[in-house]
Specification:
It is a single chain. This protein has 196 residues and is mostly helical. It is 84% helix and 0% strand. The protein is built from 6 helices and no strands. The protein has helices at 3-12, 23-60, 64-96, 103-125, 128-141, 150-195. Helix 3 (64-96) runs antiparallel to helix 4 and helix 4 (103-125) runs antiparallel to helix 6 (150-195).
């Protein structure tokens, strides 16, 4: 094939335009996006309240060693939370802009929402090591009538991690589905409708 044939083929290609989203479809899209934004705001303020309460509880813990351990643990949890909430905030800013105008931009939005589902589940699962640390602190500072054997401590830790991981995962999935998933499903249905 020579250059002239390539130019002709190039010129003959018909470029399909990306379908536009109608005003009616855009209005349908605004409601679930507004619900997602509202739930993100509520969740953000709940997290702030939880951490303020946790640090207040830490300030009254005694002895000092227990107070120090719990404060460091909660500060570490705060760092993890700040990391994940920075990802959520990025999505929040993205969906705060006017509704997408084209099919491709809506498809990109759905992809970002689904990516944030993975961040959300990762956020919950990332608390498993903190759960282990909390159990260690409890085992260390609660006065037991009889000292625990090494086997009992190992069983408590292993069972806590096993049950805790599953519980964190399923609570994260439930929470996500309840507050975000159904709205994302609505947006995905709208995307399918546009595809037709």
């Amino acid at each position: 094939m020579n250059i002239d044939e390539l130019k002709n083929t190039w010129n003959e290609d018909i470029v399909e335009e990306t379908p536009e989203i109608s005003i009616e479809q855009s209005n349908k899209l605004n409601l679930p996006l507004e619900k997602i934004r509202k739930n993100m705001r509520v969740e953000f303020w709940w997290m702030i309240g939880i951490f303020v309460f946790a640090f207040l509880v830490c300030s009254v813990c005694r002895p000092f060693k227990l107070q120090l351990y719990i404060t460091v643990l909660i500060a570490s949890m705060l760092i993890v939370t700040v990391f994940f909430f920075s990802k959520f905030f990025k999505l929040y800013n993205e969906i705060s802009n006017p509704a997408p105008k084209t099919y491709d931009s809506l498809k990109d939005l759905v992809m970002q929402l689904n990516l944030n589902k993975q961040y959300y589940l990762s956020y919950y699962i990332s608390f498993a090591p903190f759960l282990v640390c909390e159990i260690l602190i409890v085992l260390e500072f609660i006065p037991w009538p009889k000292p625990l054997s090494e086997l009992k401590i190992a069983v408590i830790l292993i069972s806590t991690v096993t049950v805790g991981l599953f519980l964190l995962y399923f609570v994260g999935r439930f929470w996500y589905q309840r507050y975000y998933g159904r709205y994302i499903q609505y947006i995905e249905d709208l995307l399918e409708e546009l595809k037709r």
